Amino acid sequence: MEYSPLQKARYEYQPKLPGILRNPIHSLIATKGDATAPQSDAEVIKSLFPHTYGLPRVSFKVTDSAVTHSPINVGVILSGGQAPGGHNVISGLYDALKKANKESNLIGFLGGPSGILDNKTLTFSDAIIDEFRNTGGFDIIGSGRTKLETSEQFEACRVVCKNHNITSLVIIGGDDSNTNAAVLAEYFLNTDAGISVVGCPKTIDGDLKNEFIEISFGFDTATKTYSELIGNLMRDANSSKKYWHFVKLMGRSASHIALECALQTQPNVCLVSEEIEEKNMSLSDVVESIVKAVVNRGNIGLNYGIILIPEGVVEFIPEVKVLINTLNTLLAKEEASYSALTSWDEQFAFVTSKLASHNKEVFISLPTDIQKQLLMDRDPHGNVQVSRIETEKMLISMVSARLAELKKRGEYKGSFSAYNHFFGYEGRCAFPSNFDADYTYALGYNAYLLLASSCSGYISSVGNLTSPAEKWTAGGFPITMMMNMEERHGEMKPVIKKALVDLKGAPFTYLKKMRDTWAIKSNYIFPGAIQYFGPTEVCDLTTQTLKLEQQK
Q1: Alpha-carbon distance 427 to 230, whole Å?
Q2: Is residue 495 in a domain?
């Protein structure tokens, strides 16, 4: 097999562990801290998770007595979308397992959660692991989005684990995946299955975070990858001085990616979905906020710029959110009648005839392409597939129309030529940055120690991440402390609460302070490619979000 020079070099990179985990693995024991509780819905969650509710935080310390690690079989699942560093979680887990006892085995379930239901496995070896160290992607065992949420599925998991003599399971995923890990852990405890479950926090969207999860893995690499591309567009715009680039960035439920990329590159405009919702901004208001920047720059001869747009922004614009929810219900109720229509004119007439006046007005105001995208096939849950809505094209069209009006009135003297981009998949499988390579390896190594300490229903936690790696902390806490009750498909269910952008937090506050300056001036920053070799201050940087949150 052919390898690039960088690929070869990354195989040889040795990730840095937190100081406590650098001690011999046979000298480490778990120590329990304070009991925990969720911030809301405590009594309901306690009733649903009697075995794992209120468990204490866990950290590790060195003991003088040698700790014996009996041979065990551990299963591992990659769940959900890819995120840079997933391979290193598995590498760290594997290395800790083998250091503890060479007779232990790590068994991967192929294709995500469906792999455990279908009993599709791969037993890892040194040779397999060494092919994937410090590389991007999830191709070592593949991933999937099958949800583990029914008692029948849990029982199937128990049977498969028993057949492989698996006594511990690690689920690497986002908020939904770790919610399912908590429910599965509770089931195993309730049925005396003898199987521990530990989760690892993954999502490039950055919305799986709290006091003890400072950042989800993959976010650092993805935002650095996108910021490089944004910086390249900025350099191009600064060179040609005639194009506006509208860049949609992955992140349906939260704007963390757009915000972090803005802090890294300083664009002329960065929309933040959470602010739009809080201010109850209409679609027209959002368009006007962009138009203002374009007009102000155009009137002084700057006919170029960069606009950052969160992927899920349309669901945060109140009037559009109401429209989308109405369309979801309408198309589900009228599926047979709507499916029989073959032309766009028929579909348009059918839908507009069913909409109340305020929804109809918003729908008609949208460009035709966006109207069609809102009526495309729904996802398995019956919801519009927001990632397929070309929001960036919609805004270009609406901004262009508004600028034409202002030009006729003599209020806009510039010219407007725009290009659209969507950066999503480009960042999900990149070679992990040194930070993500170190962080994920530590999460996996740490996950084994939690399992060895019989901590089930916990999530692996590595903290103090703005400090050098030797000062990072390691431990875990019960997943139940992150939960709240939310309505899902008509039922109230326990789920991990998504962390949206904190509009009072330091990262957004800094953006708010600087954006008027960035809007009119070309104060662009060009981050360049991710650096893997060189000075620590260049290669081991954490995100701007973390620096601002921790004031470092």
Answers
A1: 12
A2: no
